[in-house]
User: Fold this.
Amino acid sequence: MFSWRDALPSNSGWVFYAVIVVAVVALLNFGAVIWLSVDASNDQARERAEGMRCNERIAPRADLAGCQFSSAAMTGSQLSYADLTGAQMSHASLVGADLSHADLTDADLRSADLTGADLTGAQLTGADLSLAQLTDANLADATLTGATMDQTRVDGVTWSHTTCPDGALNEAPNPC
Assistant:
């Protein structure tokens, strides 16, 4: 009797097939694939989504900590409550994205376009927002403690109960 288990060279083969199944399910459910690369020495998977196109298809509350989204087209993505701790998002397009209550601690958002993004209640502690575009973004109740905001565009930003990079609590309409 034929068995798929007998056809695979080792347990690491199962991981390969699991990766393929996850990629197909992700493609069908979210319209984008988060590729899982496998380190054969310890069989641990690592999420990677470089250059990914998301366009409103990433599930809220997603665990995307440490993922690579540099230069990704994520316009209008629904990322509320997502864990994006340490995510690499430089040059990403997040125009109109819902990042409300997302954890972006230590995220790299250099030169990212967050025009009109909803960052209400977002945690941006230690994030690098240098050269980012935050025009018309909502930063109400967001925490920016220790964030880098060198040459960040903040025209039309909603500031209300926002904790600024220096730790001071901001009251609308004054910018950090």
